[in-house]
Every structure is written in structure tokens, then in C-alpha cells.
Amino acid sequence: MGEVSDPPVTLRTLADRLGLHVSTVSRVLHAKPGETQRAASSATIRRVRKLADELGYRPNPHASSLRTKRSNLVAVLVPRLSDTVLAAICEGIEEAAGERGLSTIITSTKDVPALRRARAELALGQRVDGIIFGDAVVDGALLAEISARGTPFVLVNRRAAGYPAVTCDDYVGGRMVADHLLGLGHTDVAVVAGRPYASTGIDRAQGFLDAYADAGIELPTHRFTHCAFDERGGHEATARLLDQATRPPSAVFAVTDAAALGAVGALRDRGIRVGTDIAVAGFGDTAIAAELPVPLTTVRSPMHRIGRIGLELLGELLRGGQVASRRLRPELVIRESTTSARPRP
Amino acid sequence: MGEVSDPPVTLRTLADRLGLHVSTVSRVLHAKPGETQRAASSATIRRVRKLADELGYRPNPHASSLRTKRSNLVAVLVPRLSDTVLAAICEGIEEAAGERGLSTIITSTKDVPALRRARAELALGQRVDGIIFGDAVVDGALLAEISARGTPFVLVNRRAAGYPAVTCDDYVGGRMVADHLLGLGHTDVAVVAGRPYASTGIDRAQGFLDAYADAGIELPTHRFTHCAFDERGGHEATARLLDQATRPPSAVFAVTDAAALGAVGALRDRGIRVGTDIAVAGFGDTAIAAELPVPLTTVRSPMHRIGRIGLELLGELLRGGQVASRRLRPELVIRESTTSARPRP
DNA sequence: CTGAAAGCGCTTACAG
DNA sequence: CTGAAAGCGCTTACAG
Predict the structure, then answer these.
(1) Which of A183, A199, B89, B289 has the lowest CB atom count within 10 Å?
(2) How far apart are the first and last CA of chain A?
């Protein structure tokens, strides 16, 4: 516990009070168990620690960082915090960061290139030790620049151009959904595909399309549309899909749960009953999926773990190590939104 | 754009190359438009700026902070990032922070007192200029300590013990829901009340109860239960409410949209149809509300603005000013989850 | 208009 | 076992 707020307690404060040199105090306070010996005599160590405790000494991180060139700060860029998936990933990152004495500076870039760049610059300017990008664009243009500047980074959720990334195996997840729907006999399906520049949407949709192609079914263009990953995006995309075709598909695959919920809303607006008239599947298994009146079939993506592992990889990089991308296994969660609907004959 | 990554560009780099003293360079780079005159001659200013641009000079924030005792860092403590409401508030905070050159360090404390304390200590140790608490407990015990330590702070979303807070007028919002349900003739209602230590839940529930009391209706204890604010909390609480009573209420008010969705799930499990057999209302008007198969009546809370204003107030505090709490006006959003259900006669 | 000095609080090899 | 020095990169009154 700190005491008064007026005279900040510094190494000097401690050194003066103890009749020691600041360097001695510093050494003691840094000594890791094991190398305690060379820091000072055990008596001195005890005295120093005691007073530091009493006065509530907290090292000034700016001073340390200035000397050591390490800030213990990690920047996390995400498209939006209000995206549950990213929020869960951030929680995983933060948890793992806390365990390592790192602090995270999380910022939303809204998938706006100029913002992404500005935030990355800001992070670099802040001398963060590393960056976690949750908002990578698949071509990785900005990343090439950051890479050249030398600050270590990893990607989470979205992969890009060979940089180390921790993702769900989105392609396989997309295939799982397709195989499930194929197994139920759905031949006329539509895809609410998300953004064309994010690997999540791309891979999920591609896995889905490939599985259908393997079954000899090519989706016509009017059964496939890009959109924002959120509720509104899914709603608008689904409305478009429905308006463009003479009749609705028998199933819709939305590449995120949020978009799937948007699809639910759009279908409702047209009196099409999810789970009865049409099958709907999402991706993520966020909290809403299991609570909907007709529970949502979806693909469970280990969001929290993606964040954790992302930070662990970055940690490895900061220690000078090498890391390889990780692709975590998805799991199909079957619920009534697909099982209670019959495909059209 | 920065260039190479090897030799970091410092004031010294610039000064040496230009044959100037670092202090002159520093002055120039700090000169705000208007007081440019006293920094250096306009020729010098031009030269300095040009070179700084070319070399991609970025002031080392650790060095500045060490000198100025200002970190331009603001800590934000929230119960959980995965709570949409808090995420939206964080986005508002971040947006306003960006405009002021402040960076935000956001961390989740999960409503665990030990974590809350640890994170607050961490923030203080990091020498943040100020703190925004989104996880305040109504008694404000920790806040009293922080206050004594002298770091400015404001609360968002939840108020506590007279500290400056930016909230939705939760009490009024709770009343709005009650008046709406009363108007529809609901006399047997239940409350999914959230956590007993957070002002959001307390005030929303109290407003609701008071309005019912004003109408001469006291809720029996088996129609009121506390719970976590999320989907699972709402689900479990609703299950409890239903199990404890011989028959279901004709309406349920959940103090968050997430909990309301959980209620929807629990009702579904028992075959009780929302909007037909029972009315359900939430609070927040998060993105899910409008998309549900039976759209959710809820209270719109200006989450983004709460965050923005929170940061603005903190900014005022950092400038040495005084601030007063703000209570923003809620708005009832009526949808079918309440209007299509008939109260039991 | 520009320079020189002092100092923010720390860390780290180096002496002794 | 402990001290002294140097220096991280910046800012800010103060001289001149």
C-alpha cells in the first residue's frame, strides 16, 4: 500500500534513509531468488525490502524503460472491441499478459486502413515491446512495413501473408458446416460471407464452398454475398440475398454468430421461420448461440485460447525466439437452427 | 515514416546533424502554432521540422514522461470486455482519448475484488495520469483509497458513493419499463436483477420496484433474484424464478439485454413462448435486441456517449478542473417481446 | 534567437 | 559486499 501522495518514493528515498547507495538498493530490489547473494548481504537485503514495503516503493516504469529499452507494453489492435469474438480474444491476451508482467494497450481500428496505420504508428511511437494484430488484412501490406521497422508482432484471429498467426482453423470449420448441411440434404444454400479482406471470412466461406463443390454443387453468385461481420451486416446481407432470388435458399451459413443473428432478424422480417422454414448456421459459438429461441448451430472457435496463445507467441518473440503459426481446431456444435428445418425436396 | 530500425533517432541525432543544441530542437518540436516565435528563427524551425520528418523522429515517451511526470496514459478498468455494454463504453473512451493524445490501458477485473485491487495498483504503478472505473462497487471502498493516493479518476456505467460518475439514469430507465408493463396490465412480474453490488442493477431494479409500489403492487420475494449480468446469469436466474413459483409471471424484466436473452433461453427450455405466453424486457438496447425472432423491448442506454463523456470529465480533472456526475437520459424502446404478450387476466 | 546545465529515476558494468 | 559513475532521452527555466 502506498502512503501519502506528495513526495514520491524513489530509490533515492530508500537509499538515503538506509545510508546506502541507490545502486545497492536497485540491485537488491531486482535480485531474483537465487542470485540474491551478489546483490548485497542478507542483512542489507532484509532492511531494503522492509523499508521498500513500508514506504510502498514502486519503481518508476518510465525511468526503467528509458534505461532498459523495454516498456513491458504490448499493443493490441482489433477491428472493434464490441465484437464479442475479439473481446474474448482480448481477455485471453490480457490474462496471459498479466501473468508475464506485461500491460496491454488495446485499440479499435474499425477495419479502416487509415486508422489501422495511425494506431500502429502510435503504438510504435509509444515504444511498445510488441504488437498483436487482430485486424490483419489478408494481403498484409501494413505488416510488411511494421516488420521492416523491427518491432515483433503476431496476428490473432486473422492470418495474413505468412506472418505468425494464431487462428481457428476457419477453413476446416467452414467445411464442417457444409458437410453438416449436406448431410441433412441441403442443396440450395446461401453464404453470408463477411468481409472479403479478412481471412476469417475468406477461409470459412472457402471451406464451405469447397465442400459443396466436392459434392458436385456450385453455388450461384446470387447465393453468396459479402458484408460486415456484425448483426447489421448479416441482416443487410441476408435481406439482399432474399431480394435477389425468386425464392429463399433452404439454408444460410453466416461466417459469424453475429451475422447469423442478423440473418435471423432479416428472415423474421419476411416471415421465414428459422429452424422450420430455413436452416441457419453461424460461426464462433458466442454466448447468444445457445440462448436463442431456436438455438443456433455454429462452430466453436477457441477465442480465449487464441488470445492466450497469441500473447505467448509474442512473448517468445520478445525473448528472441522463433515462432510458428498455430491453427486451432474448431468444433461443430449442432443445434436446432439446422436440425429442425427440412430442406426443400 | 520511420526508416531503418537500428539507430533510433533522438533529439541528439537531429541536433548533431543540424549543428544545433538539443534544447533548441526540443523547443522547436514543441512549439505550438502561435508561440512559434520564441522557439527559434523561422529558418531554423523549418530545418528542424524537415529533418525530423525525414528521419521519422518520434519522441521517446519514457524520457518525456520521466521529465514531465505525465504519461498520457489512462487506465480503464471494466468487469469484462466481453460485456457488449462495457465494450461499447470502451470504444467511446478510446475514441475521445485518441483525440486528446491519450492512450488507454484497458483491463478486465471480472468483478473480483482482488483482481480489481491488483489492476488498480498496477495502473498506479504504471504512473497513469488517471483512471476510469467501469467496475465500481456501490460502496466505493477501493475508490476511497485511490482517492487518497491522489490519482484522478471518474466512474462510468456504475456510480458509487458520490464520486464523479457518468451513467445512464438507470433508476428512471427501470421506471420506464415498469410503467410500460403496468400500462399493458401486467401485475404479476418478475425481476432478474443482476449483481447486488453494482449500481446499474440496483438502480434499474429499484426504479422498477418503486414504480410498481406506486401502483400499489409489491413484488413477492420469489419474483426477484440477483444474478450475473450475462446470458448465463439471466438464464440461471430465470430458471430459478420459474422453479420457485407455482406458475410463471406474466412478464420478466432483466436488468441487461444479455440477461434478458438468457431469460429467453430459460423460457424456451420450458416451452414458454416469449411475446406470446410471457413478456420480456431488457436494458441497454444492444445489437441483439432488434434482431431476435421476437424483438426485445429494452431501454436504450447511450453507452458510447457514456464512455466519451467519461473520458472528457477525466480530461477536465487532469487539467486541474472540477467535474460533476452526469446521468444520461435513457429511452424506452418498445418491441414485440412485450407488446404481443397478453398479461394473464 | 540559441546554448548550456540540471535533472527526472532508474540500471548496469566496473572498481575496490 | 558495496559504491561511484555514466547515461538512457527528454524538458525547462535561465543566460546571454
Answers:
(1) A183
(2) 71
Asked whether the beta carbons of A315 and A322 are under 8 A apart, the reply is no
Same domain, B293 and B241: yes
- The answer to whether residue B20 sits within a structural domain is yes
Decide the pairing of beta strands A251-254 and A224-225: unpaired
**Is the pLDDT reported for residue A306 higher than 70?**
yes
Distance, CA of A335 to CA of B175 (rounded, Å):
37
Closest CA to B303 of B254, B244, B257, B240: B257
* Helical spans, DSSP H, in chain A: 11-18, 22-30, 42-55, 61-68, 84-99, 113-125, 141-149, 170-183, 199-214, 231-244, 257-269, 287-291, 303-318, 336-339
- How many C-alpha atoms does A175 have within 13 Å on its Cβ side? 13
A122 shares its domain with A236: no
Residue B117 in any domain: the answer is: yes
DSSP assignment of B131-144? EEESS--TT-HHHH
CATH assignment at residue B120? 3.40.50.2300
Q: Which of A37-41, A65-69, A222-226 has the lowest mean pLDDT?
A: A37-41
Task: Identify the pLDDT of residue A70.
Answer: 94
Q: At how many degrees (to 10) do helices B199-214 and B170-183 cross? A: 40
Whether the pLDDT of residue A341 is over 90: the answer is no
Output the distance from A313 CA to D10 C1' rounded to whole Å.
33
- Residues of chain B contacting residue A82, judged by C-beta atoms under 8 Å apart: 84, 87-88, 91, 287
- pLDDT tens digits for range A182-200: 999 999 999 999 999 999 9
Among A68, A81, A89, most B C-beta atoms within 10 A, so best to mutate, is: A81
Give the alpha-carbon dihedral of A109, A110, A115, A121, to 10 degrees: 20
Q: By CA distance, what is A103's nearest residue in B?
A: B105
Nearest to B299 by CA among B192, B199, B172: B172
Count of domains forming chain A: 3
B60 touches strand D (CB under 7 A): yes
Q: Which protein residues, judged by their CB atom, are less than 7 Å from any atom of strand C?
A: A 8, 10-12, 22-23, 26-27, 29-30, 57, 59-60, 63-64, 66-68; B 19-24, 27, 37-44, 63, 66-67
Could you tell me if B182 and B273 lie in one domain? yes
Taking the C-alpha atoms of residue B311 and residue B72, their distance in angstroms, rounded to an integer, is 12
Cβ-based contacts under 8 A for chains A and B:
156
Residue A205 lies in domain: 170-301+332-339
A61 in contact with B at a CB cutoff of 8 Å? yes
Nearest residue in B to A102, CA atom: B122
- Determine the length of chain A: 345
Tens-digit pLDDT profile for residues A322-335: 999 999 999 999 99
Q: In a mutagenesis test of the A interface, which of B99, B147, B288, B311 is the best target, namely the one with the most A β-carbons within 10 Å?
A: B288
Contact B127 A62 (CB under 8 A): yes
